[in-house]
Amino acid sequence: MGEKNGQGRLKLFALNSNRKLADKIARELNVELCAASVKHFSDGEIQISINESVRGADVFIIQSVSDPVNENFMELMIMIDALRRSSAGTINVVLPYYGYARADRKARAREPITAKLIANFIQLAGADRVITMDLHAGQLQGFFNIPVDHLLAIFVQARYFIEKGITNDVVIVAPDHNGVKAARNLATLLKAPIAIVDKRDAKRAAANEKMTVIGDVADRRCIVFDDLIDTGGKMADAAAALKAAGAREVYACATHPIFSNDAVAELQNSAYTEVVVTDTIEIPAEKQFAKLHVLSVSRTFAKAISLIYNNKSVDSLFNKNKL
């Protein structure tokens, strides 16, 4: 990657949460990851050492706030502080997955809004910009008083299904009413209708008896689309409901593979033909399974970093006509 005019140099750092994605981004940018060490002491304290000069540089730190969430977040905070004290020119935080994003409002009395607290911490530590992907609620951008570039995985996901030939007789399905907007966006790209799984009871017990499908899915191929998969229960229930409604084949598609608790068993034993996710969160070997297919979003992040570094608009990343 060529150096822009002026004093700034691009420096790319990776912490511990998603080194594989960071390596891919570095290759896309044709740069080397910068030298830094992250140590964890026996009592859990974190020590970070930056092993090269960052004075005046435009620094990009890649770190997903994923499991272990608090440990990865503290690594990020300490790294930002180290860079600020080392006279970095700009500090750009690349958050492929924004942990705590689901705590974005007070649903009950005396609850915190933790997503806002995370935003406050990132700003107070000294970040100048945040680059993230598929926030659980797009309004989280407003929690920051610094620029936020909210990237989308939907173009990578849509391209995968187009190249796979899953475009005829396909229906995009929202697993609940909250996911209708996202389902409609994918449906627009794939020129497909949408359906909704209407679940009246939040409990898993007898879930299929309490779920109906709004829309025609009989003898159709369905893509159940969501921003993340956590325990897998909601997605597995949606697949069962679609099969009961006569769907011929069912695919799951989500950006963030959290895969907590029994998610792997839920998804592997479900009615899905394939579970398609991205690499915003690194999936350990013990959480991989036969139906899993992982798409990389490294090129999207690399393009965003390059455009931001060169003071160009990132609007080209949202051109729906270029799949």
From TrEMBL:
UniProt-annotated binding residues for Mg(2+): 136, 176
Main localization of the protein described in the UniProt heading: cytoplasm
Record's keyword annotation contains Methyltransferase: no
CDD domains: PRTases_typeI
Designated gene of the protein: prs
Enzyme nomenclature, EC number: 2.7.6.1
Function: Involved in the biosynthesis of the central metabolite phospho-alpha-D-ribosyl-1-pyrophosphate (PRPP) via the transfer of pyrophosphoryl group from ATP to 1-hydroxyl of ribose-5-phosphate (Rib-5-P).
The protein, known as: Ribose-phosphate pyrophosphokinase
Catalytic activity, as annotated: D-ribose 5-phosphate + ATP = 5-phospho-alpha-D-ribose 1-diphosphate + AMP + H(+)
Gene Ontology terms: biological process: 5-phosphoribose 1-diphosphate biosynthetic process; purine nucleotide biosynthetic process
Enzyme class, broadest EC rank: transferase
Keywords noted in UniProt: ATP-binding, Cytoplasm, Kinase, Magnesium, Metal-binding, Nucleotide biosynthesis, Nucleotide-binding, Transferase
Required cofactor names: Mg(2+)
A cellular component annotation (GO) from this entry: ribose phosphate diphosphokinase complex
Family classification: Belongs to the ribose-phosphate pyrophosphokinase family. Class I subfamily.
GO molecular function annotations of the record: ATP binding; kinase activity; magnesium ion binding; ribose phosphate diphosphokinase activity
Native source organism of the sequence: Liquorilactobacillus satsumensis DSM 16230 = JCM 12392
Keyword Transferase: yes
Binding site for D-ribose 5-phosphate: 226
Coiled-coil region list: none
Pathway(s) per entry: Metabolic intermediate biosynthesis; 5-phospho-alpha-D-ribose 1-diphosphate biosynthesis; 5-phospho-alpha-D-ribose 1-diphosphate from D-ribose 5-phosphate (route I): step 1/1
Binding site for ATP: 43-45
Subunit structure: Homohexamer.
